[in-house]
Amino acid sequence: MNITLIQQNDIHAQLEAHWEYFWQAGQPLYRRTGGLARAATVVNQIREQTGGACMLVDGGDAIHGTGPAQWTQGAAIVPALNALGVELMTPGNWEFGFGPDILRRRAAELAFPMLACNVFNATSGKLAFAPTAVRTIGGVPVGFAGVTTPIVTQQMPQPFGAGLRMSSGVEQVRQAVRDLRRDQVALVVVLSHMGLPQDLHLAKAVPDIDVLLSAHTHDRLAQPLIVGKTLVIQSGFSGSFLGRLDLTLAKGQAVGHTHSLITLDESIAPDAAMQAAVDESLRPYRSKLAEVVGTTATALHRMRVLESPMDNLITNAYLELTGADVAFSHGWRYGAPVPSGPVTLGDLWQMIPTNPEVFTTTLSGAEIRDRLEESLESVFAADPMQQKGGYVIRTSGISARVRLNNPYGARVQQLEIGGADYQPEAAYTVASAGEQDIQADDKQNSGVHAIDALRRYLAQHAPVNAELTGAKFVVI
What we know:
Blueprint: E1 2-8, E2 18-24, E3 27-33, H1 36-49, E4 54-58, H2 67-71, H3 78-84, E5 88-89, H4 100-109, E6 119-121, E7 132-137, E8 140-148, H5 151-154, E9 164-166, H6 170-182, E10 187-193, H7 196-205, E11 211-213, E12 225-227, E13 230-233, E14 241-250, E15 253-263, H8 272-282, H9 286-290, E16 292-296, H10 309-322, E17 326-329, E18 341-344, H11 345-351, E19 357-364, H12 365-380, E20 394-396, E21 398-402, E22 412-417, E23 420-421, E24 427-433, E25 444-449, H13 450-460, E26 473-475
Parallel strand pairs: 1-4, 4-5, 8-10, 10-11, 11-13, 17-24, 21-26
Antiparallel strand pairs: 1-14, 2-3, 6-9, 7-8, 12-13, 14-15, 16-18, 17-20, 19-24, 19-25, 21-22, 22-23
């Protein structure tokens, strides 16, 4: 008996084809990929090939990340997900980006359930989502459990997880697997939005998982990772890829598998019905998205852990707007690349869709160094369960020499601010926007939101240059 699992994860509301970043001969290469219409073509082909003995699941971070998603609190994305025929989903951290009440509304609009065994009402202690589901695939009962990252209530803005409590998920997954085994399923599959390091830890801690469909960290796994008997896959982000896992079952267990990471490139013809659904969702916003607001000489992307051109543009814009000494931006991973050439308003909204207001504050040199140490720990913590996701905080005005293998508090070996050695007691003006874990009582709002700051900067610099400096975080 053969069954097939199809995975998409972290599409971040990218409904259409877009530029994607690849590597070739050690150099970046940009190709047009993705789009739910191409995904539908592949999914429909697999459904036909397998005689329906397959299932499409979504790993979360689907309804947040672009202008249309932000302007409609995710509602513009729901019809397209339904049309694609997703059958189960676990919520990602950005599903909570409009707050739990809106998420409950979006979940009710979906034609399929969300699963999460580690999200609770903080008052009643009741689960906020169903923890498990059993589906028959090709005549085989398959048990699914969902788990998501607890950073929603640990690290993200308070409104994201208002009224919720979230656990690390390990004990809840262990119990969910026991429950599913008692239901005598032939296969246990965990849909996780924990992140790849955490999921490998989870697979070790709960060895009775057959398949772990990982998400959150945007990894492109060309082949499964195997932990004990558990197969772990993850399939990129931005809807540029699908993961296909074909499983051979015998005597109630998986005895063989094949896997492919499918790139949704221009060789795949878009499905007409799915394209019509996408067009219907995006029609009200197309003219706004297409407005050209500047040009860039630098290809903008977020494919580097320590520094990215996309965030160099953002932090440079904050510095110019405020005249601050230092600028910080989030270490976000999402956002489709923008090759050199025109930059549209739609590009800006998928770079920083929350569009927070720019502010300034005053921090001592010691406080800035501590902030860098905290960010490095959140990315490189030796304990994978202490890694919080995202990349290192983005900066302008700073140059640091770091040892990533050192423990928390000892990674920043040398720090310069404004080209000079930092002074721990000196006061520096810092510009940022949104929630940056900056604890200060003197935040001064600029009256300018991030996208307007970017528009101003693009208007004043034609074209902009946001090349990697290689000096913001130098690994020694």
